[in-house]
Amino acid sequence: MDIRPIHTEADYKATLKEISVLMDSDPDLGTPDGDRLDILVTLVQAYEARHVPIAEPDPVEAIKFRMDQSGLSVKDLEPIIGKSNRVYEVLNRKRPLTLSMIRRLHQSLGIPADVLIAETLSG
C-alpha cells in the first residue's frame, strides 16, 4: 500500500480523486481498499485542517440553518425577532440583527453569539 503524505495542492487533488474512485466502489471496512480509503480520508482531513481555513458562518445563514434543523417557521421566530415582517426583513438581509435579537436568538435557539454578531454577507 503505497501512501505518501499530502504536501502540495496537486497531491491534495490527486488524493481527492483517488478517494472518489474508492468511494464509488464502496469497499468494505477491513479490506485493502477499505483500509486505503480510511487512511486517505484521514490524510485529507489532516491536510485540510492545516491548509483550508473554515470561514465563520454568516448570521442569517446560521438562523436559517437552525430553523431548518429544528423545523421552525417564521411564525416560530416572532417571539424572538418580532412580527413576521421583521423576521422576513432579517432573513432577507434588509434589517440587521439588534443586540436584543442576538441575545434572544442565542438563548432560545442556542446559536453562538459570536456567530450572530459576525458581519452579515450582503444579499
Overview of this structure, please?
The structure is a single chain. The protein is mostly helical. It has two domains: 9-51; 59-116, 434 Repressor (Amino-terminal Domain). Helices cover 65% and strands 0% of the residues. The protein has seven helices and no strands. The protein is elongated.
What is the number of domains? Answer: 2
- Class by SSE composition: mainly alpha
CATH topology of the largest domain: the name is 434 Repressor (Amino-terminal Domain)
Global shape: elongated
Largest sheet entry: none
CATH class of the largest domain: Mainly Alpha
In whole angstroms, the N-to-C terminal distance is 48 Å
Percent helix, as a range, is 55-70%
Write down the overall mean pLDDT.
92
Number of H- or I-type helical stretches: 7
Order of helices and strands: HHHHHHH
Evaluate the radius of gyration.
Answer: 21 Å
Low-confidence stretches: none
The portion of residues forming beta strands comes to: under 5%
Q: Care to count the β-strands?
A: 0
CATH architecture of the largest domain: Orthogonal Bundle
